[in-house]
Amino acid sequence: MIYSYTDTLLDKWIEWSEGFLSQKLNTTTNDLNTILGTSGSDNPTRANEFFRIGLLNFELTNSPKAFDNLRKSETIQSHLGYIAYLIAKAKSIETNNQIVNNGFNALSTFFLIQQYEEYNSQKISLASILLFLIEKFPLPTNCDEKSYLRYLTAGMFCELNTDKEGIYNAINSNAIPILRIIDGKTKASRATFISSNDIKQAIDSSVSLTDIVYQKGSTFFIGNHKSDSPRGLFYLSYSNFSEFLNDFYQIEFSNLHNNPFEVIFETTQNQNKIADIKSIFSINNKSQNLKELMRTLEEGSLEAIKILGWSKVATVDPSVKNVIFYGSPGTGKSFTVESNTSGQSKTRITFHPETDYQSFVGSYKPVMDGLTIKYEFVPQAFTKAYCQAWLNPDKPHYLIIEEINRGNCAQIFGDLFQCLDRDETGKSKYEIDCDKDLADYLKKVFEGKGIVDDKIILPANLFIYATMNTSDQSLFPMDSAFKRRWDWEFVPIDYDDAKQLTIEVDAATKYNWSNFIKNINPKIKELTGSEDKQLGNRFVNPTNKKITLDQFKSKVLFYLWSEIYKDEFGTQNSIFKYEDNGEIKDFQFGELYDDNSTELVKSFLKFNGIEKEL
């Protein structure tokens, strides 16, 4: 159980992240209080909490591994730890930023589901226990929900600390348990709950929750129920992500004697609890509400980066309506789009050679109506975005087109490309006649501005952002008439960002990704005469920022061989060479999968001037 509010806990996390966790440790002691210059403090408790909720990869109290890493200037924070710092730091700067606050609530939800109770080796999350009680003691009419939750939770913690067996027996038999508010000193019962009305009566009678058994449990779980915004861990989560929590509860209580979530209750080094949760939800076909939680966390992180001024991502002028983000493969074009649309309503489509007008706009298709097949107009990305923009005129809506040049734009847009011309207000300069199928559909959706006399016009709040990998521009060349209707935003290679990644050929041999692409990219440019095929900083997006040998071979070297150097085999232009006893030898891609592949990769990197990290 976390014995503090999330904001208080993360204030300490900010302090540590900006302090000793980001510095090289220059002392031989492994005592946390000595390192922090404190004594008799709650720092060891906070350290244990940080490890248990997945912010740290190593314990700071019972293992020397964390301190050994700090002495080598190696990080011990997890991915979730970095996210927690970003969001908490941004929240301390802009307290009323709703996107960051939503991300903060999503963080609280991840912390909540890791809190559990144990009886006779059976572990059950505290969140699911309380959701079980909410199910058995439904909220009465005319009862304040915050007060109800606080009293119900107080009863839960009193029983868990005096008669845990009773709670567990009720859960395992799906029965209504008896709950009590128990005085912390006398152990006398102040109130007994066997029904929801008993809880309401205790609230109406103002039964005191001060000095009860395990008072801090309900305090930190719900918060001050008399406040407009209680800060408790469960309340923040339940108020914002109740559907996700209900999915969690259903999965856990359908597998009580083989609880799949025990993996996230345990604490291990280099834990990845988010990945564990995703896997469990996927297996149980409950991914939709988890995706919403993850999206909220991602948007909060992106917004935090903007607030902190750490983003090198180009910020697009909001007066610009049609933008194509272009650059070499892996430069972060989609990330740039996501950063500029964080927290906004959006519709997304990826173009490919088979994309056509119907798959972009919509067409009549057979659909089932009970046991009958009928035909109706099925809208696609453009029509969905168009409707959303007109139906919500005060909010921006983004139509995002990934890999726009992989499709035949002239065929896909058809007459719609005339709408891309915008006037000074942001709406289309020209209205165009739309085909009858589309017109009939739009008339059903709305009347008036969105469709007049079978003509359509793009509203000023509809933005169209697209990405384009310049190395693929030969698929379907864009004509100049189409190109001039867009603003073009170049996304360069960020070599500083690439420094975060390492290539791990084996346990003892690592190379910096930034050094690799800095060395290889000029050779690509010299050979091809273009920057288009250079390797971007995010060409590979590995787990834990470590590019494995298999990833390096199958993604990076395969790309270099198949797209650039295959026809250069045996020539002086090839980079697929190594030195053997003073003799320069060529090799082909397939040899990277022979028995000596690890040594071959090392020799390849050495030949190309890439130095190992010390």
**Assembly status:** single chain
Q: What's the pLDDT, averaged over the residues? A: 91
Radius of gyration: 29 Å
DSSP helix count?
A: 26
The poorly predicted ranges are: none
Anisotropy-based shape: globular
Structural class: alpha/beta
Q: Give the biggest sheet.
A: 5 strands, parallel
Name the strands of the widest sheet in spatial order: 6-9-12-5-13
Portion of residues in helices? 40-55%
Characterize the structure shown.
The chain is of the alpha/beta class and 614 residues long. The chain contains 26 helices and 18 strands. The protein has a five-stranded parallel sheet. The protein has a three-stranded mixed sheet with strand order 15-14-16. α1 packs across α5, α7 packs across α8 (145-160) and α7 (126-136) crosses α13 (242-253). The mean pLDDT is 91.
